[in-house]
Design a protein that fits this description.
Elements: H1 2-31, H2 37-52, H3 59-77, H4 80-99, H5 109-129, H6 137-147, H7 153-171, H8 173-193, E1 199-206, H9 209-219, E2 225-230, E3 237-246, H10 250-260, E4 265-270
Antiparallel strand pairs: 1-3, 1-4, 2-3
Helix pairs in contact: 1-4, 1-5, 2-3, 2-7, 3-4, 3-6, 5-8, 7-8, 9-10
Length: 282
């Protein structure tokens, strides 16, 4: 069962990598519209090198090079499993970017911006939903969230703002505005498939409170608040476990609940802020 889950996760990661490569080589790169995060930085550096120097390095190779130091840091600070899947995702994306030719399917820049953003976001969304990541800023976000319990959105915004401003200054503000369209579309699609929120609160109503608590502590090492609960329809005595997790832990939490008590009622809500103790160490 465990092996089957791992195989499924790797298949999803590879499909996400294919979608990311298709988004870049068939839509964004031909239109000079940029993606977010490390992918956008790799695009931008590749464009600048090609246009302003005799050096030419593909986006895929640059993406891999940018992720090497981050992966090393993630291996030490975040965890081997999470980082390994991120490395697989980045490596596969690099390979597919080299295989798929850079070719415009449309001359309409708006179509390229929208469809490029949507296709990339589908790949990212399902990769996140299966408990993996696409590397780059996801690893940086994990490291920063464990060092300092601060909103990661600021770092994402700063990096994307740098990409947009640089693109605007070098290639015209129209390109920068279309890049904004891509970023907006991507974020909305990822919201639908997974979540952009860094922390989530799960309220689990179960008749197997002790078993659920043990399993969560074994896998996630998160604090849990237990409250008595009573089913209104059947009058059964149950417990409600309330736990706050990061978005990267949601996949594991879902599988713990499914393994221990598939009939448990679980409500997942977005958490905008936390006061008090929240584990941020590795």
């Amino acid at each position: 069962m465990f092996l089957l889950e791992e195989v499924k996760k790797i298949i999803v990661i590879l499909l996400g990598a294919i979608l990311g490569a298709v988004s870049l080589n068939l839509f964004l790169i031909p239109a000079n519209v940029y993606a977010s995060g490390f992918t956008g930085i790799a695009q931008l550096i590749s464009s600048v090198l090609s246009d302003y120097t005799p050096i030419s390095i593909s986006t895929g190779i640059l993406l891999m090079l940018l992720n090497i130091p981050v992966a090393i840091l993630g291996w030490k600070k975040v965890g081997k499993s999470f980082t390994l899947y991120s490395v697989i995702s980045v490596g596969a994306t690099t390979v597919f970017l080299e295989i798929i030719p850079v070719q415009a399917l449309s001359e309409d820049i708006l179509l390229n911006a929208v469809f490029g953003g949507v296709i990339a976001a589908i790949g990212i969304g399902f990769t996140l939903k299966w408990g993996a990541s696409t590397g780059g800023m996801d690893i940086v976000a994990m490291i920063l969230s464990r060092m300092k319990d601060r909103p990661i959105g600021t770092y994402f915004f700063s990096m994307n703002a740098l990409i947009i401003l640089t693109a605007g200054m070098l290639y015209g503000w129209e390109k920068a505005l279309y890049t904004l369209v891509t970023l907006y579309v991507s974020s909305r699609v990822i919201d639908v498939i997974h979540t952009r929120h860094e922390k989530l609160t799960a309220m689990i109503v179960t008749s197997k409170g002790n078993e659920m608590q043990k399993a969560i502590h074994d896998r996630l090492v998160r604090g849990i608040t237990k409250l008595p609960a009573k089913g209104a329809y059947r009058g059964e005595d149950k417990e409600m476990l309330m736990i706050v997790v990061t978005r990267y832990e949601l996949y594991d939490l879902e599988h713990i609940i499914q393994d221990i008590d598939p009939t448990a009622f679980t409500n997942i809500v977005n958490t905008t802020g936390i006061f008090g103790f929240f584990r941020t160490d590795g």
